[in-house]
Each structure stands twice: as C-alpha cells, then as structure tokens.
Design brief:
By secondary structure, this protein is mainly beta. The protein has one domain: Lipocalin, CATH 2.40.128. The protein is built from two helices and 13 strands, in the order H-H-E-E-E-E-E-E-E-E-E-E-E-E-E. A hairpin with a 6-residue loop joins strand 12 and strand 13. The radius of gyration is 22 Å and the shape is globular. The chain starts with a helix and ends with a strand.
C-alpha cells in the first residue's frame, strides 16, 4: 500500500520518459475518420488520410482511403408507373492528392480509382449484387477561418461509377475555443435519386483524442413529397 501511495506523490523517471511516447502536433501524419448520416436515407463511411511528405499541417501530397455504404429509398420510372425500391450501395476509393495549408485556409484536391457495387430490393425481393464497377472519384475539401471567431467548410465529391455528386457547405461562429456552431446545407444527386438537407452543425467537440461534428435538420428527396428529419455524426483523430 505504501508503494501505491508513493506513485502519485511525484514524477518518476519512468513517467518522464513516457511523455516522449506522445506524438507532437507537428509530427502527426495520419487522420482516422468515420461518419454516419441517418434519416430517410442512410450513409456510413470511414477511412484514413495520410500525409506523404511530412506533417498534416504542412502543404504537400496526401492520400485518402474511404469506404462507404448507403441506403436510399427511390422510385424508378417504369411503363407501369413508379416502382418503389431500396438501393444499397458500397464504394471504396483510394485518392491521392495535394493539400495547401495557407495559414487560416486549408484546401485539398484528390482524384483516384473508385470501386462500386449495389443491390436493389423491391416488393420484398432482393436482386443480386451488381458486378464491381471501376471508375474515377474526385474530391475537393475546404476548411477556413476567415477570422478567429468564424469557420467555413466545404466538400464536393464526384464519382463516375454512378455519375454521382455529393456536396456540403457550412459556416459557424465560435462558441468556445475550438468549438463552432452554425448552418449547413448538403446535397446528393445520382441519375435515379436526389436529396437536399438543411440543418445546423456543431463542430469541434473534443473527447480525449477524438474530435466530433454533430448535425441535425430537415431533408427532402425526390421520392417523397414530405420531408423528414435527419441526424449526422462525424468523428476523427490525428495520429
């Protein structure tokens, strides 16, 4: 018992050496991330961003790996009228690119191969998964602080396998150090489906080494006349 009490009395040589195990911000080269957007449609994704030349906070070449799943309720136009279907999609992409860190502005552009599969369900029947299709995915990211008390973000992603386009823009005012809140708008378009989401977000919630972004609002898609609520949650960690 005396030995246990002595551990908390002061810093030991072992404790001092343990401080060297923590990665300094200037040495961090990897971001792990995941997100969930749930409403009438559901999208999940996860992946990693890797600096290829040095710190994440420097301009240089980067690489993104993202795997995502989506479930949408759609209406296909047929000779007999509209056919309600559920479409499940799976995509994986590896996109190298370049990131510019210009003080308060961070801009990244990426492009690379994308692999896509999907399955359609209607009338209680599920068709087989489609054969994997290979295409090109492009992505542009913006993260900027026009002032110390404001945040502006934007993301635009296009994929050739489904001729899809996804985008989100948001703005925020500082609530506390590192925490911003404000409006957001998101859209998603494919040849068979489209939706728009309007809502609000809170970005910069910290828990241990994790950072969170939470959002909520109202969505409208072309398969339903009435809108519905949605919730979103993103989390990332730097290593």
């Amino acid at each position: 018992m005396a030995g246990l009490l002595g551990v908390g009395a002061g810093a030991s040589p072992a404790a001092a050496r343990d401080e060297n195990l923590f990665i300094r911000p200037e040495d961090q080269r990897t971001v792990l991330f995941g997100s969930l957007d749930a409403g009438r449609s559901v999208f999940m994704s996860g992946g990693a961003k890797q600096s290829l030349v040095g710190s994440l906070d420097r301009s240089g070449f980067m690489a993104l790996e993202v795997t995502g799943f989506g479930l949408t309720q759609e209406r296909l136009r047929t000779d007999g009228g509209d056919l309600p279907v559920l479409r499940f999609t799976h995509q994986t992409a590896v996109t190298p690119g370049y990131q510019w860190n210009l003080g308060a502005l961070h801009l990244g552009a990426y492009a690379g191969p994308e692999l896509h599969q999907e399955q359609v369900t209607y009338g209680g029947r599920a068709l087989r998964f489609s054969k994997p299709r290979l295409g090109i995915r492009g992505q542009v990211d913006l993260w900027a602080h026009p002032s110390a008390d404001t945040l502006v973000t934007g993301t635009l992603i296009s994929g050739s396998t489904r001729a899809s386009l996804w985008g989100r823009a948001s703005a925020g005012l500082r609530v506390t150090d590192g925490l911003f809140a404000g409006p957001e708008v998101t859209f998603y378009v494919t040849p068979t489906y489209s939706e728009v989401r309007w809502g609000a977000h809170v970005t910069g919630l910290r828990l241990w080494i994790l950072t969170f972004r939470a959002s909520a609002g109202w969505m409208q898609d072309d398969a339903h006349r009435r809108g519905s609520p949605y919730l979103g949650l993103s989390v990332w960690m730097r290593l």
